[in-house]
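Researcher: Please predict.
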Amino acid sequence: MSGIDEIKAERIKKLNILKEKGINPYPSTTKRTHSISEVLNDFDSLSKDEKVLTLTGRVMITRGQGAIMFVDLKDGTGKFQAVFKEDVIPEDTFSLFKDVIDGGDFIEVTGTLFATEKGQQSILVQDWKMLSKSMLPLPDKYHGLQNEDERFRKRYLDLLMNEEIKETFRLKEKFWDVTRSFMKEKGFMEVETPTLEITTGGAEARPFKTHHNDFDMDVYLRISVGELWQKHLMAAGLPKTFEVGKVYRNEGTSPEHLQEFTNMEFYWAYANYKHGMGLVRDLYIEIANQVFGTTEFESRGHKFDLADEWAEIDYTDEIKKQTGVDIHSASENDMKDKLQELGVEYDGENRERLTDTLWKYCRKNIAGPAFLINHPKLVAPLAKARENGNTVEMFQPIIAGSEVGRGYSELNDPVDQKERFEVQQKLLEAGDDEAMMPDWEFVEMLEHGMPPTCGFGFGERLFATLVGKPVRETQLFPLMRPKD
């Protein structure tokens, strides 16, 4: 029998002791009067009149022996010490506690508040009740879960034992709260758009595919937060919209990429990419101040201050500066040779993929904050072209070597859009799984007319960058392979 099996067997014996005494080890009710945080916040007044309180929580640590026991309880709002004294609790109640209690159990304690000789705020227990008997032990309090695979599979234990991890997700909640508040204060209407689509417009990525039984047709999980749908709303006369929602991309995993993540996208009628850049800078600074209390960060080997001036970096010039390649005149073989020389792996051999891979090599060297501008038309099939015809009115915030957003003056010329979709269709037919699926109904909408519009999106990568963690660490339950 393994060590865990022996522990489980011992706890089952304790479970049976409770049952033999007619005690339900998993009751559905509790007489809790206060949360731990309420007691901590109002300890002095609650302890003055020796009022009897009832607290609940998980047993984290037990200490002592003989006539006195000290127990640390956590209820999700805080941690508090319960003191069990043999001369305060009925003898049989105290003995039962010592016989059956283990770390990980959930209990209810009733008593009065007091401070120990060392000043430790505590509750002197007069009675107790089992709320949920645990069968398995908690991780070691000093080391927690060390293996990353176990941490993600047993996130409930990771959060329980590691306050830093828990704080990450409190910050993430605030990150999205601040984002929503900012957008609404600026007059944007929050909307919901479909997550199942016939064509996956709005980004270049490989989608997840499923089948709609009722309609007997294949559909895709969306790869953007309703980009084309929100543009329909621009044509419908809604001037400012945004959505926060899940996005799904059937691609590889990296410190900056996952298959399922949360993004925000906004669309702003009668605005262009320049207006968008100003709004985004203000939004990022607001997030930094409200969520983190600072605009200065150090992440992934870069230091940056979001309150600094945001430089504008030319896409073509930056690649030429760092690699010597002019993406407009270089041949595809020239690009491949340079990538091989740099030791950069690349997927796909068409000009669009090679150009994008060269840029991704360069971006890692930029601390920011900065806006990348003047993207080639080829890598932005939905952005409005500049008068030179080779580049588009697009911008991307660059922070700590990462792209942490993407926006542009939206293409609203139906003829141009149709031609660009046709290029994307040829890429798909040639085997490029990440090329954008054409949406001919979207072209029809443009033929009815859409006002000049700025669109922008960003997501969890920004949060991960600001907290200096891989994006997988900032998801509560990242997807895991099943255990063998």
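Model: The radius of gyration is 29 Å.
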